[in-house]
Design brief:
283 residues; alpha/beta; two-stranded antiparallel ribbon; 12 helices; binds NADP nicotinamide-adenine-dinucleotide phosphate
Length: 283
């Protein structure tokens, strides 16, 4: 299995285009460790998720092979709060350095310059390698970038899937122009783009057919899955990462589905198949 890699922003770091999300993650260390071994060595967590400890457990003994991304809560964006939150994340993760530290949500009550001063301080002290944001609009990215004094913002983590294509209007082209990687969250639309495997691989033709009948998009996805010999989840993720500068971070508690998601890279949908998906799931 090969997972293609993409450059992180304008840095010299290469990341897998499929990473591992951990919101509501309950799978224990093993699925994450397995994903890393398959090449999905980017793990995304956040102080909000309460999964930093399991991420720490998963990376034990292979820290140097994993790129850890975590986030500071939108309610903790005062200078001292950011520094305190980073200390806590480092402790829970059991590591010396966070590879990518992201502002989880913008907060209009705190000047972004104050937050970014703390983020830059964390890079200077060596506690953070790269700074990212999440859920930032173009305007908010502009403001945040203007507040930086010495380090760049290398990524924006935003919702993106066949069912949620809004970023194609503005955020995605902005990031592509400005060398910011897009970390696509909820890329499987919470599992709804993979009705078959969401049932745990059990054969539930009645249920699947009902779901598909209700949703022509899923039928198209299933059709392309049949043509390519891939699963609907793999097709949905491959579509996501077919966009330059986009990395998808699906979450799965299951080792088998983690492996399935890792198999979404290393092959290409044809332009006709991409067009069909674009047409069926309009922006
Ligand atoms: N920055 C933000 O504000 C933000 C917001 C939301 C999410 N995120 C990040 O993005 C990650 C992914 O997003 P998400 O967890 O919301 O949604 P997602 O990855 O689109 O979907 C996760 C759901 O899909 C199921 N699933 C995973 N792989 C599957 C497969 N191959 N076939 C069928 N079902 C599958 C999972 O079930 P099982 O676990 O049972 O397999 C889970 O119920 C999060 O974990 C988090 O790291 C960030």
């Amino acid at each position: 299995m090969t997972i293609n890699q993409k450059q992180l922003g304008g840095t010299d770091v290469m990341l897998p285009e499929i990473g591992l999300g951990t919101w509501k993650y309950r799978g224990g260390a093993e699925p994450l460790r397995h994903g890393v071994k398959l090449g999905a060595f980017l793990i995304d967590t956040a102080e909000m998720y309460r999964t930093e400890d399991v991420v720490g457990e998963a990376v034990r003994g292979m820290r140097d092979r994993v790129f850890i991304a975590t986030k500071v809560l939108g309610g903790h964006l005062r200078y001292d709060q950011v520094l305190g939150a980073a200390e806590k994340s480092l402790r829970l993760l059991g590591v010396d350095c966070i590879d990518l530290y992201q502002v989880h949500w913008p907060n209009s009550r705190v000047p972004i310059s104050e937050t970014m001063r703390a983020m830059e301080r964390l890079v200077d002290t060596g506690q953070v390698r790269y700074i990212g944001v999440s859920n930032f609009s173009v305007e908010e990215m502009e403001e945040a970038r203007a507040a930086m004094t010495k380090h760049p913002i290398v990524s924006n983590q935003v919702v993106y899937s066949l069912k949620r294509r809004g970023i194609e209007r503005d955020v995605l082209p902005y990031c592509q122009r400005n060398r910011m990687t897009v970390l696509a969250y909820t890329p499987l639309a919470s599992g709804s783009l993979a009705p078959d495997s969401a049932s745990g691989g059990r054969k539930t033709p009645g249920r699947a057919a009902r779901l598909m009948g209700r949703n022509q998009g899923i039928e198209t996805l299933q059709g392309i899955a049949n043509e390519t010999g891939k699963t609907p989840a793999q097709v949905a993720l491959n579509w996501c990462v077919s966009h330059p500068g986009v990395i998808a971070i699906p979450k799965s508690n299951s080792l088998a589905r983690t492996e399935e998601n890792c198999g979404a890279s290393g092959w290409y949908l044809s332009s006709e198949q991409l067009d069909r998906l674009d047409h069926t799931f309009p922006v």
